[in-house]
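Dear Dr. H.,

I hope your travels went smoothly. While you were away I took the liberty of generating a structure for the chain from your last submission, since the lab meeting agenda had it listed for discussion. I wanted you to have the full record in hand beforehand rather than looking at slides cold. The sequence, exactly as received, is reproduced here:
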Amino acid sequence: MRKKTETSPGSKQPFASETEEPVELRLLADKGSPGDSPFRPDAGGTLDATARRGETYTYKAQRIRTVVLDQHKLQIRSELSPAVTIAMRDDFPPRVPTGLETIPGVDTASPSIDLSWKPNVEPDLAGYLVYRQEVGSDGTASAPVRLTPNPILEPGFHDATVLAGHSYSYRVTAIDTTGNESAPGAAVREELRQP
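The corresponding predicted structure, in token form, is as follows:
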């Protein structure tokens, strides 16, 4: 038994129930390969592929076994299990962006650095965040500064806030629609020469 979401007959897509009443959803356990012994131990368990993020579901389980005695088909049912409530949360960040490359701009009057990286493929990807550190001549780096106030959708960024004669280190993270942010990818350093 599951609360709040139900599946229409013949459909794999859930639709919202108009009421908060419990809705029965039949999920079948894995029966094994054809030719398996009918007396194979039942490991139990199933997968609810219609569950959606952000929703809370309550489940109860019941074992049902069909047996044939003297050519009569009988169904044996267990008691319903105690209810289990699960909140479908997404706590997993996207993969770390890879392949970051930098190219200094050619216009010395307007210094810039262009960045590009390999795109992530997660379906819930909201975009990317770009961080920059200024690197001193002694190799020490300033605290990271986030250059993108909001996630950017494309796997590239144009930084026009750099100064000639300075050295910068960039890192990129990916963020999903739930707000989970990946660890930063490998840092790439770029130095802008004086004109």
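Two observations you may find useful: The chain has two domains: 1-89, 101-191. Residues 137 and 190 are 13 Å apart (CA to CA).

With kind regards,
E. W.
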